[in-house]
Design brief:
Strand 1 and strand 2 form a beta hairpin. By secondary structure, this protein is α+β, with helices and mostly antiparallel strands. It starts with a helix and ends in an 8-residue tail after the last helix. 43% of the residues lie in helices and 14% in strands. The protein contains 5 helices and 2 strands, in the order αββαααα.
């Protein structure tokens, strides 16, 4: 799934021949419960993002840089 996270602009998850999830990878990988039901493991960084934020995210970070950015307040000054 790391390759999907890095290179894909759209992801589709099938379950029993039907579309269970589709959308941008950062949206699809946010649905860890559906992914597990479909025997798909999300990238570890996506799971970490969900865990650190208490779950329920609509989109998750797929890179370390995006994860760090998600925790930086918008009104802070970058050094």
């Amino acid at each position: 799934m790391r390759a999907v996270a890095r290179h894909a602009t759209r992801a589709v998850v099938l379950e029993a021949g039907r579309i269970a999830l589709e959308g941008a990878p950062e949206q699809v990988f946010a649905h860890t419960d559906v992914l597990r039901a479909c025997s798909v493991l999300p990238p570890p960084i996506a799971e970490l993002h969900q865990l650190l934020c208490g779950g329920g995210l609509e989109t998750v970070a797929l890179t370390v840089q995006d994860l760090l950015r998600s925790f930086v307040r918008k009104d802070t000054v970058a050094l």
